[in-house]
Amino acid sequence: MLLENKIAIVTGGSRGIGFATVEAFLKEGAKVVLCASRQETADAALEKLTETYKDAVVEGIWPDLSDYSAVKAAFDAVAEKYGRIDILVNNAGVSESTPFADYTEEKFEKVMDLNVKGVFNCSKAASEHMVAAGSGVILNTSSMVSQYGQPAGIAYPTSKFAVNGFTLSLARELGPKGVRVNAVAPGITYTDMMRSVPKEVIEPMIAQIPLRRMGQPEDIANAFVFLASDRASYISGEVLHVDGLARS
Questions:
Q1: Contacts of 137 (CB under 8 A, 6+ apart)
Q2: Which of 26, 71, 141, 190 sits a CA distance of 20 to 30 A from 8?
Q3: Choosing from 148, 156, 190, 234, which is the catalytic residue?
Q4: 156 belongs to the catalytic site
Q5: pLDDT tens, 75-104?
Q6: What is the pLDDT of residues 37-78, one digit of tens each?
């Protein structure tokens, strides 16, 4: 098992890519704390996981990721219970598609608070324990739009561009202390959001991908497993595109 007995925290772990990552980590022997926005969503995810992985060690937390004191308290409790934090996956995020003319300061801040400030808060809280231990892995969810933008909803690609810069800079700073930092940039992935998109919209998108299919959450989760494992022990400061060569 690639992650046997590792202690991992996965934010946004109750559905989509985050849930698939929690599953993949459990299959590889990790003990996982999934972080959700609310207790109800955490409980629902845990019910599914414990039915499938009966011997797995998995639990849920739900701090406000934009509040550093709440994140630190929750992460400190995880470290106290399990003795350490080996892996953090900053996957929680929000996307939207408001035209720029209709943007409000509040809407922009809402995206940045979770997608950027949340990554900062979680990384800061977890890295304290990783640096003290002399080892650890921080993984961030970026996006293909961080490189190419998108027609509307400017806060989302802006936030993911910030995540890329955060990843590269933190990798340089924490590398000498034994902590690796990388990001995964998914392409078009078949999550709950994509299930509601009409077929006539999806098909032209797929036609632009050489592999002629959308990514599955498991495709992204597998990349996180690799980067979290010792097989990626000499990889840091990378933004790994998992997009079926969807880039132009």
A1: 86, 87, 88, 130, 179, 180, 181, 182, 227, 228
A2: 190
A3: 156
A4: yes
A5: 999 999 999 999 999 999 998 889 999 999
A6: 999 999 999 999 999 999 999 999 999 999 999 999 999 999
